[in-house]
Amino acid sequence: MRFPLEVFDAVRAAFPADKPVWARISATDWVPGGWDIDGTLALSHALRARGCAAIHVSSGGVSPQQAIKPGPGFQVPFARRVKEAIGLPTIAVGLITEPEQAETIIASGEADAIGLARAMLYDPRWPWHAAARLGARVDAPHQYWRSQPREYKDLFENASFGAR
After folding, report:
1. Theoretical Cys-Cys bridge with 131: which of 65, 73, 115, 136, CB 3.0 to 4.6 Å?
2. What is the CATH number that goes with domain 2-122?
3. How do residues 18-30 score in pLDDT, each as one tens digit?
């Protein structure tokens, strides 16, 4: 844990004190006898003691011996464990692709935020599409107002077609 803690300390010292510093950690390397959730919890406690504002919980991708069985939300339980044990806000990842899935994770308290990667690469307008499906609104630049789908007439909260 020494190296990531030294890096955190260096970033915290160089970054304005009134700004939050988060850490992205790997909860497990999915290798028997390797890094696991117990180590993650110990690292997270140490980060919290140093003033870490949130923990972004991911996993794997570091060993050819890893045995990962990916599925929708497969890494979310790690974020939930960190949140429950450490008390810091957590960011969950791991095949979170559907708006309803993301909303359930947040609403149930399993995590405080969702990190999207592949879903955003596939659909750069994922947040707009998620807002539309979940009945929320987004603040869109006026250049996009005319792209508002007819079935979601209130999606863009600031759209006023007569204003420009």
Report:
1. 136
2. 3.20.20.70
3. 999 999 999 999 9
Q: Which tokens hold the place of 49? A: 């003691």
Q: How many CB atoms lie within 10 A of CB 35?
A: 19
Q: Which of 126, 134, 140 is nearest to 106 (CA)?
A: 134
- Count Cβ neighbours within 10 Å for each residue of 135-153 and write b for 16 or more, e otherwise: eeebebeeeebeebeeebe
Is 139:158 a contact under the CB 8 Å cutoff? Answer: yes
How do the domains of the chain map onto residue ranges?
A: 2-122
Q: Report the alpha-carbon distance of residue 124 to residue 24 in Å, rounded.
A: 22
Burial (CB count <10 Å: 0-12, 13-18, 19+), residue 164: exposed
> pTM of the prediction?
0.88
Give 3-state DSSP helix, strand, coil % of the chain, rounded to 5. Answer: 40, 10, 50
